[in-house]
Amino acid sequence: DALPILYLRIFLVVLLGLAMTGALAYKKFLQIQEMGAQNSAVPPPISVVVARAEAAQWNKRIKAIGTLNAYQGVDIASEVPGVVKSIYFESGQEVEAGTLLVELDNRSELARLASAKAKFEADNSQNERLLKLKDKDSVTSNVLDTQAALVNIARSQIGIAEAALAKKSISAPFSGKLGIRQVDVGEYITPGAPIVTLQSVYRLLLDFTLPESNFKDLAVGQSIDFKVQSYPDLLFSAQVKAWNPMLDENTRNVSIRAEVDNKQGKLAPGMFAEMEVTGNRKVPVLTVPETSIFYNIYGEAVYALEKTGATDTDSNPAYILAARQVKVAYRVDGMVGITTGIKAGDLIVTAG
Length: 352
Prior knowledge:
Layout: H1 2-40, E1 49-52, E2 54-77, E3 82-87, E4 94-95, E5 100-104, H2 107-134, H3 141-166, E6 169-171, E7 176-178, E8 188-189, E9 194-211, E10 223-228, E11 231-243, E12 253-261, E13 272-289, E14 294-296, E15 299-313, E16 316-325, E17 327-332, E18 335-340, E19 347-351
Antiparallel strand pairs: 1-19, 2-9, 2-13, 3-5, 3-8, 4-7, 5-6, 7-9, 9-12, 10-11, 10-13, 11-12, 13-18, 14-15, 15-16, 17-18
């Protein structure tokens, strides 16, 4: 009796196992069917915010760097050697044109001038006496001509002595600001040795270069905004005065010069200027919000809406998102100007 009961128990266990396996297999089958139905279903549409690309004109802006130079600037020096007799200026002083700065020992030149004047007086007196004897036929014309020549020579010697004396006095050739004095009283100086630097700082020159592609982007009188490191929060202005008609053979850059009003005295020659130049030519662009731009491995891009041909309803066409590579020309006040990649009227995704 025990053996049939054992077989019956084994049969029941097998039957129970088969029932459980079948139930699990059926449940898995239903899950697979559900997943297949989900994959075959059309995904719901994505909601995005779009803006229409608007056509506009943009003045190209070019970043450049330059250097401020004095409108006029020289190292004051003497044409002749000599000992410094007097100094009439202080380092850093502002002077007017013609202000006497330094006087060299001029005793020899004064003596030569006095001698030349005495010689002229003697020759001229002799010439006047001979002219009085001319009417009495007591003197020949040859003697008169010789004496007149001596008078002219004596007069020219006075001019030479006066010129030599003038070179012993050194004056400011133009108005400006002096630098640090390089000589002292009693010092012997040689021709060309610097005495002091004189810079005209009331007007400055801003010199910079631009690439060949920007040769026609500037015009005489055009305004340029620039900054210097000494005043990072201030914006200064300059006006284009001229540029070289010939490009640099090595860099293919064009050299440009602008003029800066420096009456306030905040700028100085040698300062480094960072500027943004507004081009003279207008460039056609398409403007969209800056939030439209995203980045991929190829650079900057936007998503544009393109019609698929299908429609949700008769009045609601279906769209797809299409990524387009673009070239951004500028970013200003939350808007960007795009030169290539999209067309006017395109719907560009700005959010979502």
